[in-house]
Amino acid sequence: MRSHPRGIYAAGAGLGKTRTTIEAFQFRQLCGDSRAMLVCAPKNASLLTWPAELKRWAPGLRVNLLNETWEWDDSDVYIIHYHIVHKLVEFIKSTRTWPCDTIVLDECTCARNPSAVRMVQLAPILHRAKFVYGLTGTPRPNTEADVYGQLQAVFQSDNPFGPSKFAFENEFFDKGYMGWGMDPKAGAVARIREKLSGHMLCQKSSEYLDLPDICYEDILIKFPRPLRRQYEELKRELFLQLDGGEVTAVSAGVLVNKLLQFTSGSIYESVPHPTEDRMIKRVHHLHDLKSTALIKIKERPLLVMRQYQHTQIPGAVHLDPTNVADWNARKIQIGIGHPASIGIGVNLQAGGSTLCWHTPTWSLLNRIQAEARLWRMGQTEPVVVYRLLVEDTVDVAVEAAVTLKNNEQDALMTALSFLR
User: Are the C-beta atoms of residues 294 and 388 closer than 8 Å to each other?
Assistant: First the structure.
């Protein structure tokens, strides 16, 4: 970061991405090259992690949570979260002021879609910035194609793959029917990784940190015959008659989501609002098999990752920025949350070493980031990850698919570590 004005630092959890960025900014401040830094981060990371890390590693820096104050002052660091980028752009236009010459995109996989409204709005600011850095622990959450948007956000007109995502995809990938799905062309993966060298620095936690062991244990659940019959009917016929309503899966993707809802315990149905011109969701409760299995896990504290709001665990406390300190003080025995919310950028390792996936996730990003909340530097105990899976269902298929994605990302991280 001291020698490159723009770049992506892709490092595993606990390798100090935040601290490294802070120290690089302080160095540039001392050299007179940079005056102020803007940090864009996921919401909880912007509210919890960055303020805490700045206070810990650079107590002399003045910090402004811009989403709370909405004023330019003499701060050294301004922090916002991605969901309010449009407000930042409006604020800059109204004040005609822009004091930040350094921009940090924390968890820059959030910026991997260059066509997203917030990235289109942010692009002129990124283009004019003197220094831009992207931080991530999951550079390719799905495929190698994910790296393009991150490089576009950080490098803008100097993107090594060119200014067109369409041209990038045509050069390196074969697209599936109607544009759905992309498979790398022969030799494309190696060519992509070669171009990434010098633009993205990758480091794996296992290569640098002496982390405690992490082990996985699958808890297999068997459907009783009536539930199995309903499940197979939904899978086969794409609809299922339920008491008080009918649930229809209108596409294969929606069907998979419906099947995941089914295995998790409840299923949603869209119904008209009784008095307003809009649709609402009705929840049909089917079973408590996963909740019952989860309660039998003996380890406490226990961190539970859910996919659906209907998931209810007796005695569980929903984790949010107001009670993360209680979790880390081990005042909460069972904490529950969605991996996209509490699973990114929040340090939870002090609160426990046991995690349970109530429902498997399609997202490799969510999986790696969620497990890294516990399995990271500062963890003193072996980490155990339980996965609740219903036998012979979509649960098992999703878990296998995400494991394959993880193996491919490990290959990318290892290749770029070697190339550097």
Answer: yes
The vertex-58 CA angle with 52 and 60, nearest 5°, equals 110
Cβ atoms of 348 and 324 closer than 8 Å = yes
Each residue's pLDDT tens digit, 234-289: 888 766 655 556 665 556 667 788 889 999 999 888 788 888 888 888 888 999 99
Instruction: Give the list of residues 6+ apart from residue 164 with CB closer than 8 angstroms, or none.
Output: none
| 352 CB neighbour count, 10 Å cutoff | 25
Tokens 């494991």, located at residue: 403
Q: Beta strands of 238-310 (E only): which ranges?
A: 239-242, 245-248, 266-272, 279-285, 302-305
CA distances from 322 to 138, 328, 350, 352, 373 (A): 27, 12, 16, 18, 17
At 211 the pLDDT is 82
Kindly report the backbone phi and psi dihedral angles of residue 174, in degrees, each rounded to the nearest multiple of 5, phi listed first. -100, 125
Specify the amino acid at residue 131. Answer: F
Give pLDDT, residue 242: 59
The tokens for 226 are: 């009536």
Can you say how many angstroms the Cα of residue 195 is from the centroid of all Cα atoms in its chain? 25
Question: What are the backbone angles phi and psi of residue 44, rounded to the nearest 5°?
Answer: -65, -35
Residue type, 51: P
Give the closest residue to 113 by CA, choosing from 67, 169, 192.
169
Residue 91 C-alpha from the chain's centroid: 27
State the pTM of this model.
Answer: 0.74
Over 156-211, what HEC string results?
HHHCCCCCCHHHHHHHHEEECHHHCCEEECCCHHHHHHHHHCCCEEEECHHHHCCC
Whole-number Å distance between alpha carbons of 332 and 350: 12
Residue 291 CB neighbour total at 10 angstroms: 18
Query: What is the Cα–Cα distance from 78 to 150, expressed in whole angstroms?
Result: 21
Annotate 18-45 with DSSP letters as a single string: HHHHHHHHHHHHHTTS-S-EEEEE-HHI
d(CA 154, CA 136): 12
CA 234/CA 246 separation, integer angstroms: 11
Give the tokens for residue 169: 């995809």
* Pairing mode of beta strands 37-41, 102-106: parallel
Half-sphere exposure of 329 (CA within 13 A, CB side): 5
**pLDDT above 80 for 25:** yes
What is the biggest distance separating any 2 CA atoms in the chain, rounded to whole angstroms? Answer: 71
